[in-house]
């Protein structure tokens, strides 16, 4: 038979749609063509496959070879189709049995010597193949990542010859194995922070309720130091959350930054801190073949944006959608791809261009106009979506020496955070920051006195309806940290305090 069909997977966001690799050997002058919307890397597969077959002492047929990657309207990229194309040629020419290909999917890039090299998106492909009831053969380097899928039937090979020997029944391929030891979080400890009791408290509230947080203060006061401690306060990832995060890292591919090994990053809450020169596409994802951006790589973790007014306005405004919905939709002419992006935003900014407005040293010389222009770089709607606005004061060297080291470490605070988060999950099945209007009516009820207090605060601080809802969610989190059944006045007043600004930052 001159026709063979091999099953594989493409990459489309964090999904892995099925691709049928159809190989036909026909008459005519020897040639090879690949059709089915292939990208440049896929079109180049014909040269890699030819060299790999010849280096492996296998026959490359002197026939007219047509390779169709179906469906034809799905873009195909990368070297993932090298192995299925090679196997299709071997099966169509009778060098391996075609029936051995029926219930198995194949992915892998071929080197000119016939070795198999790792490909991007192995974990989403493993999950999709398992759902389709098929086993999967991958390069050995993708084995630890694919093993994260649990009971998936995944085997690995080092070379094309090993795959051929297994298909002929001469040997069996090894099962994919996870790394011997799963990585554990060992981030910086909150005990390193001297003073800053107000900021530490805000950090605990943010961790407990999954709230967004803005630190405002002069240079060197500890904003970045505080932000880097947040992942250590968050509850451990569930298995579902860890699998989601690992799938995003896998789909993003190699070279996107620290932690691009999905297997070694298993279970660790991501902490992404892109530079303020990053573009909007780098933040939310995109490209001709869209890949996840920083907001998706921070899914189930923390996204830290330092020097917030220094970011371009276009980059900041694209954050509105994921902050509200927890997803990002990248639209192209032919299709739209959705990436998960439920993260905690921690932002930091200076109070003025020089950074010293309001400091006791009196060194700031910025005009009122320049201060207003600087703060206007961050739009009101974006600030409106940040739950906690916290001022961080600079401590003098003398105050730092006199400040006693905090008694509580990250582990101690994380214990309270875990208890508060569990109460939220038992009550509503989600963190307080994600409560909808109907759920808030049930869990965030106020007494008549507290309702009048909130109405007065909303009028004086010019709070929008969204801001009022965020105040209530924060108050509910404070109540959960205090193991309180309902919101009382102390909880509400503390929550309102996180929407104020003594330095004139625009109140949302």
TrEMBL record:
It comes from the Bacteria. Gene3D superfamilies: 3.30.230.10, P-loop containing nucleotide triphosphate hydrolases (3.40.50.300). Signal peptide: none annotated. Keywords: ATP-binding, Nucleotide-binding. Pfam families: ChlI (PF13541), Mg_chelatase (PF01078), Mg_chelatase_C (PF13335). Residues 293-388 form the MCM C-terminal AAA(+) ATPase domain. PROSITE patterns: MCM_2. InterPro entries: AAA+_ATPase, CHLI-like, MCM_dom, Mg_chelat-rel, Mg_chelat-rel_C, Mg_chelatse_chII-like_cat_dom, P-loop_NTPase, Ribosomal_Su5_D2-typ_SF. One of its GO terms (molecular function) is ATP binding. Belongs to the Mg-chelatase subunits D/I family. ComM subfamily. This is Magnesium chelatase family protein. It comes from Aerolutibacter ruishenii.
């Amino acid at each position: 038979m001159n026709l063979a069909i091999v099953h594989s997977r493409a990459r489309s966001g964090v999904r892995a749609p099925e691709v049928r690799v159809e190989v036909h050997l026909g008459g005519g002058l020897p040639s090879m063509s690949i059709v089915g919307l292939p990208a440049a890397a896929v079109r180049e597969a014909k040269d890699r496959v030819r060299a790999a077959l010849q280096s492996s002492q296998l026959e490359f047929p002197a026939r007219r070879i047509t390779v169709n990657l179906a469906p034809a309207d799905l873009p195909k990229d990368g070297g993932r189709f090298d192995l299925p194309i090679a196997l299709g040629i071997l099966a169509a020419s009778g060098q391996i049995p075609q029936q051995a290909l029926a219930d198995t999917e194949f992915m892998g890039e071929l080197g000119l010597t016939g070795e198999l090299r790792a490909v991007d998106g192995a974990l989403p492909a493993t999950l999709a193949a398992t759902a389709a009831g098929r086993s999967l053969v991958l390069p050995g380097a993708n084995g630890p990542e694919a093993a994260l899928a649990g009971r998936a039937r995944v085997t690995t090979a080092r070379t094309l010859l090993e795959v051929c020997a297994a298909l002929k029944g001469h040997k069996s391929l090894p099962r994919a194995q996870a790394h011997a030891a799963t990585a554990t979080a060992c981030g910086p400890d909150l005990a390193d922070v001297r003073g800053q009791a107000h900021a530490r408290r805000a950090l605990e509230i943010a961790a407990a309720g999954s709230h967004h947080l803005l630190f405002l203060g002069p240079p060197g006061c500890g904003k970045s130091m505080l932000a880097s401690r947040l992942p250590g306060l968050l509850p451990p990832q569930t298995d579902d959350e860890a699998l989601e995060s690992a799938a995003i890292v896998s789909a993003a591919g190699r070279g996107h930054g620290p932690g691009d090994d999905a297997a070694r990053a298993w279970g660790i809450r991501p902490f992404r801190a892109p530079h303020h020169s990053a573009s909007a596409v780098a933040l939310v994802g995109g490209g001709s073949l869209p890949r996840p951006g920083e907001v998706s790589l921070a899914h189930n973790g923390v996204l830290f944006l330092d020097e917030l007014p220094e970011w371009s306005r276009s980059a900041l405004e694209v954050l509105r959608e994921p902050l509200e919905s927890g997803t990002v939709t990248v639209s192209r002419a032919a299709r739209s791809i959705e990436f998960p992006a439920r993260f905690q935003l921690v932002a930091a900014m200076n109070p003025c261009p020089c950074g010293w407005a309001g400091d006791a040293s009196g060194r700031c010389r910025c005009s009122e106009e320049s201060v207003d222009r600087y703060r206007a770089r961050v739009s009101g709607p974006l600030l409106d979506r940040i739950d906690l606005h916290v001022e961080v004061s600079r401590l003098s060297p003398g105050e730092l020496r006199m400040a006693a080291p905090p008694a509580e470490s990250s582990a101690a605070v994380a214990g309270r955070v875990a208890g508060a988060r569990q109460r939220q999950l038992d009550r509503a099945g989600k963190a307080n920051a994600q409560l909808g209007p109907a759920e808030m009516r049930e869990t965030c009820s106020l007494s008549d006195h507290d309702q009048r207090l909130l109405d007065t605060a909303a009028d004086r601080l010019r709070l929008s309806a969204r801001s009022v809802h965020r105040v209530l969610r924060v108050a509910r989190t404070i109540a959960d940290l205090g193991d309180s059944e309902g919101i009382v006045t102390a909880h509400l007043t503390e929550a309102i305090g996180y929407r104020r600004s003594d330095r004139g930052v625009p109140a949302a």
